[in-house]
Amino acid sequence: SVHYKIKLLSDFFGDKNLSQITPKDVDDYKLLRLTEVKPSTVNRELACLSHLFNLAKRQQRFFGENPVSISKLLPEHNQVERILKMEEETELLSSSSPELKAILLCALNTGMRKNEIITLKWENLDLDRNIITIEHTNTKSKKTRRIPINSTLRKLLLEQKLKVGTSEYVFLSSTGQPYKRHDSLKQAFGGACKRANIKGLRFHDLRHTAATRMIEAGAS
Q1: What is the reported pTM?
Q2: Residues 164, 170 contacting (CB under 8 angstroms)
């Protein structure tokens, strides 16, 4: 929110007048924030600061050059969303280990994020009502989400229940252990893509693929 951005800027620049803030101060702010957030987030905060300078200039309360304009925004290198084609999906699944294949199918049938999938517990599933509940503590938006379980996913989950036995987690690695890190699937996913000759695909693109297919099927 704007109020949050103002607080971040105020905490860093303190009691300095606008005329006292230099391009180097803006550079220092970038370096500090880049240790915590992505370049795109830093740019949204800098845009707020830049707006304050432009507003002050219009009101003739600031007469110098905008230091944000001199320092410039950070390059974001945003990637274009990639949608997986059906023939690519077939190749990818056939090139994946059973453990990875189950995770990919869950992603493609729900649109869940990678971390939401690898940390999914049986207590989050209601197979009587066919609903997955992602608690607010485990979602990017910090809001609880409920995801319907379709017939393909239901069959997969019942198979997973037999495979993982008494584990509290739905998906386990090839060693039979829970996934502990965000990048746990990086090597396995990259290897499967390479074997399937699929280029430029990120795991997060499976979320975009799922959403696109749902919309094409008539979902809101």
Answers
A1: 0.65
A2: yes
